Predict the 3D structure of the following.
Amino acid sequence: MKNWILFFVIQILFWACATDAKVKWLDWEDGEKAMTNGDRKAVVWVYDPTCPTCKEAEERIFNIPEINQYLNQHFIPIKLSGKRKEPITTKGRTYYFRSGLNGYHFHDLAQGITQSKETISYPQLVFLNENMDVIAPLDGNIQPNELNLLLHFVGENQFKKMSIDEYKLKFN
């Protein structure tokens, strides 16, 4: 009987840990609401739903429990499709879906926060400060160890004190 109880306790603990190991993505509007406290920064995953590189990168870098737990605890994770059709109003401005030249379509907000000039290279990771201002847009096709380093670098406000190269020496 004790073995069965122990078995069920282990199963419950495993399930609880596994559910916390996934990123709890929010859409832009819910992410903006969650940031009203002003106590956490955001990480925005800007992607194209039809992009194979985006899918592969998301599977590779957001499948690491330690990264996902740190991301969920220290940031507001937001997912933004660069092909989203609905307008988004944020910080007093409305952003729209645009049909560009040569059949290139994009959402203004995705283009704005990735600081892209003409086209958006997908996927992108964008760090936002507590006021939803861009800290830095980055190529989202990175390795998990690079993302882990960047999450700590930004999450601990080290980017205000030192360069990423200096931080790498201390982090490792």
Q: What stands out?
A: The first helix runs from residue 2 to 20. Residues 6-19 have pLDDT under 50 and may be disordered. The helical segments are 2-20, 28-34, 52-61, 65-74, 108-113, 144-155, 164-171. The two ends are 47 Å apart (CA to CA).
